[in-house]
Design goal:
Length: 425
C-alpha cells in the first residue's frame, strides 16, 4: 500500500514561502520564532489514516521591519486546510454570545432593515448570520468549506461555497446586489492576499456600508504567551499599526474599535470608506498604537524574548507532566483545539503522556490528533473514566469548562491550564 497521504495527492503545490510582507511588500522580514515542522493543526486523522505519512510544514514567525506585521514564513495551500473544516463556531457558547453582541451593535448602529444585505466572509456554519437573519435582514455567507456550507444551508443561510476575493465579490454583487454590511470574524488572519480581500470589500460594499472584522490581537498573544495560537491557518498576527497601513491603501478608516476577551484577546473594528464629514476616531487609534509601542511589540529584541519565554514554558510543562507520569497519574486532554495540537506537537505531548482528549465537537470525536495521534472522545468520558488530571488545551474556555465539569474536581480530579502561565487547579 502506498504511504502517500491520499488527502494531499491531488493538490499541485502544498505550500509556498513568504518573501514579501503581505501588507507593505517589504522584503525586510526578521525571523524571531521557530516552532519547527508540524502537520496542519486541524488535520485530525481517521484511524485508518494514522499509518500514512503526514505532511509537515514549517511553522516560523517573521516580523516586517517596515510596517510591523507579524506573519508566518510559509503559506500552506488553503484547499488543504479549509476544504473540509472541522472547526464549528456554534459549538462554543462564548462565541455565540459574542456574535449576539456584534449583530446587535451593527443592526442598531446601522439601522438595518429587511432590505439590507449582510454578507459574512468565512461564514462557517452560518452562526453569525443567523442572528442577522433573526433581525430580519437579508444574509449571505461565503465560505470555501463544503461541509460547513451544507450545515449553513440547512439552517436557512444562503451560502456561496468559495473563497472571497475580487472576482467572487463581483459575482456576488451581480447575483445579490451591494452589501450594506460585510463581516469577517476570525478569518482575515487566514487570508494570504489581503489586498484582494480589500479589493473585494470595495467592490461589494455600498458607499456608506460598514466592514466589520474581528481578529485575535497580537498584543494579547505577545503579553500572554499565547504562542500556540500561531499555526499554519493563521498567516498574519495583527496589531493596529500595520492594520491601519493596510486599510489606508484602500481608502477605509476605522469608525469603531473594541477590545474583546475571546480567543485569548481579540479586537473588533468597524470600517467605512473615508469621509471628511465624519468625526474621526484616529486619536483613539493613535493612542492604542502608542500602547502597542510601549509593549515593545515592534522591537526585535522583545520578540526574541517572547521566543525565549516559549522555551521556558516548554521545560516547565514537560517537567510537570513527566513528573506526574512517574507518579503513575492518569492524564487526559480537554478540548482538541487546533492550538492544542501546536502545543502538543511542539512540546512533544503524545500518547505516552495523555490517554485521550475529550471534545464536544461531534466531528472530532473518533478521530486522532495530527502528529501526536491522541484519540478523541466525547466529553462524557471524563466523568465515566475519572482520570487524575485534565490538561485544558482550550485554555481560552477554561472558566466555562471548569464550571461545566465541577464534579471532576469534586471527585478529586485536577485541571492543568498551560497558558498564559502554567496553573494546576
Ligand atoms: P477553540 C479556532 O482555533 C480555529 P481552536 C480557527 N482557525 C481560528 O481562527 C480560531 O479558533 C480563532 C472544544 N470545547 O475554539 C471545542 C469542548 O470540548 O479554542 C473545540 O474543539 N468543550 C477558526 O481550535 C475546542 O474545545 C467546551 O466546553 O484552537 C476549542 O477550540 C468548549 C468551550 C470547547 O479554537
Ligand atoms: Zn510590512
Amino acid at each position: 500500500m502506498s504511504k502517500e497521504k491520499s488527502k494531499t495527492s491531488g493538490i499541485k503545490k502544498l505550500a509556498k514561502d513568504v518573501k514579501l510582507c503581505r501588507i507593505c511588500h517589504s522584503r525586510k522580514l526578521f525571523k524571531f520564532l521557530d516552532l519547527g515542522s508540524m502537520p496542519i493543526p486541524n488535520g485530525f486523522l481517521k484511524k485508518e489514516d494514522i499509518s500514512f505519512l503526514e505532511e509537515k510544514f514549517e511553522l516560523s514567525c517573521l516580523f516586517c521591519e517596515s510596517c510591523g506585521l507579524v506573519q508566518l514564513s510559509k503559506v500552506v495551500n488553503p484547499i488543504l486546510m479549509f476544504k473540509n473544516y472541522v472547526y464549528v463556531t456554534s459549538m462554543a457558547r462564548v462565541m455565540m454570545n459574542n456574535f449576539s453582541s456584534l449583530s446587535y451593535q451593527i443592526y442598531k448602529g446601522y439601522k438595518l432593515n429587511k432590505q439590507s444585505l449582510v454578507v459574512d466572509i468565512g461564514s462557517n456554519d452560518g452562526s453569525l448570520l443567523t442572528f442577522f437573519k433573526n433581525y430580519g435582514t437579508k444574509v449571505l455567507g461565503v465560505d470555501p468549506a463544503k461541509n460547513l456550507s451544507k450545515i449553513a444551508l440547512m439552517k436557512g443561510i444562503p451560502t456561496e461555497t468559495r473563497l472571497f476575493n475580487s472576482s467572487s465579490a463581483k459575482l456576488i454583487r451581480k447575483k445579490y446586489g451591494f452589501a450594506d454590511v460585510i463581516t469577517a470574524t476570525n478569518v482575515v488572519a487566514h487570508i494570504d492576499n489581503l489586498h484582494a480581500l480589500f479589493e473585494g470589500v470595495s467592490i461589494l460594499l455600498k458607499k456608506n456600508g460598514a466592514f466589520v472584522t474581528e481578529f485575535p490581537y497580537f498584543v494579547d498573544l505577545f503579553k500572554k504567551n499565547e504562542f500556540d495560537t500561531i499555526y499554519h491557518e493563521h498567516l498574519s498576527y495583527f496589531s493596529l499599526k500595520p492594520w491601519m497601513k493596510l486599510i489606508d491603501l484602500f481608502g477605509f478608516e476605522v469608525v469603531s474599535v473594541q477590545k474583546l476577551s475571546i480567543h485569548g484577546g481579540s479586537i473588533r473594528l468597524v470600517h467605512q470608506r473615508k469621509d471628511k464629514a465624519r468625526k474621526s476616531i484616529l486619536k483613539t487609534v493613535k493612542y492604542l498604537i502608542s500602547v502597542e509601542e510601549n509593549y515593545e511589540i515592534y522591537s526585535k529584541k522583545a520578540l526574541l524574548q517572547f521566543a525565549n519565554r516559549v522555551e521556558n514554558m516548554k521545560s516547565e510543562l514537560m517537567s510537570l507532566l513527566t513528573d506526574l507520569k512517574r507518579k503513575r497519574k492518569r492524564i487526559v486532554g480537554y478540548g482538541a483545539a487546533a492550538k492544542g495540537n501546536v502545543l502538543a506537537n511542539y512540546f512533544g505531548i503524545d500518547t505516552g503522556i495523555l490517554d485521550y482528549i475529550v471534545d464536544s465537537t461531534p466531528y472530532k470525536q473518533g478521530l486522532f490528533t495530527p502528529g501526536t495521534h491522541i484519540p478523541i472522545f466525547g466529553e462524557s468520558k471524563l466523568a465515566e473514566d475519572k482520570p487524575d488530571y485534565a490538561l485544558i488545551f482550550a485554555w481560552n474556555f477554561a472558566d466555562e469548562i471548569i464550571e461545566k465539569e465541577r464534579n471532576f474536581r469534586k471527585n478529586g480530579g485536577k485541571f492543568i491550564i498551560p497558558i498564559p502561565k502554567i496553573r494546576v487547579l
